[in-house]
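Please, structure for the following, as tokens.
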Amino acid sequence: MPECSVIDAVREALREEMRRDPTVFIMGEDVGQRGGVFLATQGFLEEFGRSRVIDTPLAEAAIMGIALGAAFRGLRPISEIQFSDFIWPSVNQLIGEAARVSYGTNGALRVPVVIRVPYGGGIRGGLFHSQNVEAYFFHTPGLKVVAPSTPYDAKGLLKSAIRDNNPVVFLEHKKTYRLVRGEVPDEDYTIPLGVADVKRAGRNITVVSYGLMLHYCLEAAEQVALDGIDVEVVDLRTLKPLDKETVLESVRKTGKLLIVHEDNITGGVGAEVAALVADEAFEYLDGPITRLCGPDVPTMPFAQSLEDAYMPNTERIAEALRKQSAY
């Protein structure tokens, strides 16, 4: 299989779905002539034209509102929010409307909308280009939330999201765009939403993560393997719906759980995973459930030293794993 980056995989998923289904179109700031700030839609305007690759004003509320109206009329819009930090003007349309329409109409109206959201830190983006926003949407019934970590997963999950009849918040960690590479098939494939993946099998400790942190967890697992600690790494891939069974099966095997994510620790995805395991696998635990997450500060600092202090990294994860193994 050919190898590509995460952003290449995203681009190919978009292109293939637009070729496959004429009801799919893309809208957002700079997605047309510029090809997107990260070049995810580079060349799309020339191939698909202005009716299907729509440059919008700097107006996220309008982007989401137009997408909802188009979805109600049988189209499949893909809205790009240029950075996660800019998503807040669209929240009323997304949480207040898109998440509730199907329920409120007893299924008469479907909302096949994908919202692509570059998110996360580690690139010195500062206060307004580094935010982690997943917990806000993870909390909201009616939304699906996806956070891939590899090119293979990004392509397969994005294609599934575009074909889904529900609103999907599709989170793409900016630092993985060109940093992470992997094999991706040329042929058409999809990955079902709501299915986690065991990226590394192990028997001593379970680590649950997603996005960029997944790669740091894999590196840390290799480090502590030299100490005889065998770590199983579970990639959630889809945050909502959460694949409870894969998490529980892993914890029942290992007896220990570390949860790692970049988002703030309080009220994050990790808190729900911890509650799930405490409720349904407590008798299998040989030690406390622990979390290694971003601190409860308002947003990512700009200074390199402060950003480094904020972000979990391979060394801190390895240290947490060694501590877990001591129980």
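The chain is about 40% helix and 20% strand. The mean pLDDT is 97.
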